[in-house]
Each structure stands twice: as structure tokens, then as C-alpha cells.
Amino acid sequence: MTRLAHGLVIGKFYPPHAGHVHLVRTALARCERVTVQVLASTSESIPAALRAEWLRAEVPGARVVHGLDDAPVDYADPHAWDEHVKVMRSLLDPDDPPVDAVLTSDRYGVELARRFDATWVQVDPDRRHLPVSGSAVRADPAAHWWALPAPVRSWYVRRVVVLGAESTGSTTLATDLAAHLGLDPVLEFGREWSEVRPGGLAAPWHTAEFDLVAREQARREDDGAAVSPVPLLVCDTDVLATTLWHERYVGHRSPTVEALAAARRPDLYVLTGDEIPFVQDGLRDGEHVRHAMQDRFREVLAATGPRLDDPADVVHHLGPAELPTPDGARPGVPWFEVRGDRASRLDQALAAVGPLLTTPRHVADPLPQAGTDAF
Q1: Residue 371: inside a domain
Q2: Mean pLDDT within 171-199
Q3: Where's the NadR/Ttd14 AAA domain (predicted)?
Q4: 235/109 same-domain check
């Protein structure tokens, strides 16, 4: 089979899925060069640059670019076609050979290929080989989890962080919650570091150590999200908690750790109460600082987002409420504090986690389509 010189693959990739990856890999097998164009509208809520980044990770042999395309989507309107193709041509590299192949699954590829004076290559007609679409993923990502590349799964995963002062049962609750859901929790790296750090617990603490702990905690979280079998991750602490332990042990705030924490926002914080007896395990400061640290946790969480009077109230923070406001402000992270015995704490956590697990992460609707029966 003669290889074509330059294949073009276009789409919203909102989000990328196995069908898209198969389409691009087919293009790479058939063409000397492949350009993939992520054409996004201002109505969509997953940034085009992020979608392009996800695709580059999956199909490194292709040139993946992104651009803004707010033209009406009407396959029967020649003027709409003119506007779309104008955007596509603007994203082509002038040093590349002319496009001589257009690869699509849907039949609009006939017209797109005609406008580029190229050959149309249809891949997986009617999605018989890979029955998945972007609209289906957006409606129910869990049902199409098999079709999502790792970075897309990581984005869709809802993250629940259990945290609290020393000896408040946060590790116990995180472990119980994950086990109840059939998951592995993301374990706390800071404790592991405390056990092996040079000089032991008596040595002075340094900001560089907390930078290390924060980065490793973030890495573990991201790795866990990418391989989670469901769109949920349970974390025993996170980088926000690391900022507070830096305050405690170094004596002042850390701009670097706080910057990393600000860039990583979970879907829910569960604060474990300090009403239970203190247990010294050889690594903890002691009862004399526990309640003050717990108050600091409450203070920071209150600045991060709304406190829930009832764990089930998390439903009011899902759906469109998850999207940034028109001025770009991000919604706060809801949180609540669990108290009581071990079983009661698990029940309280499950009351909030249940809606998180069953409600897909909200994404804004793309532009409506018209003229889909034109081909």
C-alpha cells in the first residue's frame, strides 16, 4: 500500500478516547506525516491545550496543534464549512507538504477531503470496532472508562482527601473508605520520610524536605488516578496538609509548597475529628499540640471552601457548580469533619463519597450540531 504524504485528523477531542487514538494511529501507519488539529470552541470547559497535551502523550509521532473554532457546526451550510476550513488551514505548518489524506470515522470526511483536494480515508465506520464517542464519554465516563487514555482518566477521577492533625484517625478512615470501595488508598509519604530522614526526628527540618514530600505525594496521587478502576481516588493526606506541617516544623510558610497545593484541588476534604484519645506511636509530637494543629486545619480548610453541615450536601457542589465562574474564579473545595467511632466515621464519609462516585465530572456542552444528515 502506497503511503500518503500528509494526513489530516481533526476533531474536538472532547475528551480524547480510544476511538481518537485508533484514528490517529491509523493515520500514522498510512501517512508520512500526520497533523492532528484540536478545534475547540469557547463554550467548552476542558482547555484545548490540555486536550492537545493528552493526545501528544498517546500519539507522539503526530504533530498535534490546537486552535479556536467558534464557527457554527452545520454540515449542510457551505459558509460554515468555509469558516472551519479557514481555521484548519491556519493551523497547518507551511513547511509541510500539502494535505493529501483526510482521515475520519464519520462521513463528513467526504466534504472535508474535497475541500483539501485530498483522499478520504474512513476509519472504523459507525464505530463498530470501538463503540465510543465524545458525547457518550461526557454523559457517563465511568461506563466508558475502558476507552479513556490514562491522562484523561486522571482528569476525570474525583479525589477525596482525608486529613487531620496527628492521631485523629485519618489513615484509618482513608484505609477503611478505600477498602469499602474496593480501592487502594494513596498513602502518606511524609510519614515514610519521617522514618528514614537523616538525623531522625531530632534533626532540624528544612523546606527542601517538604518540597520533596509534596512532590512525591503529588506524584503518587497522579499515578493512582491514572490507574484507578473507577472515577474516584481516596488519599491519605495531600499537599495542602504538607503546607501546614511545614509551618509546624520549619516555623514559617513555604511559597513553593503552597504554590503546588494551590494548583492541586481535590473534590472533597474529609477532616478527621480530634475528639478521640491520643495515641503515641513514636513519631508524633504529642497531645499538647494536637488540638492547636486541628484548629489550624479547620482554619485553612475554611479558607479553601464551604464547610458542609451534612456530608450529603456535597451534591449541591456538583454539576454546573463545578465550573469556573464567568470571571474565571474557581469554586471552593467543600469539606466536613467526621467524629464518632470508626464505623460512624466511615458512614459519614460514604454519605459524601456516594454522590461523588455516581455523578460524572461536569463539562460544558459543545456547540450544537446541525445538518448531520447531509452525508
Answers
A1: no
A2: 95
A3: 159-305
A4: no
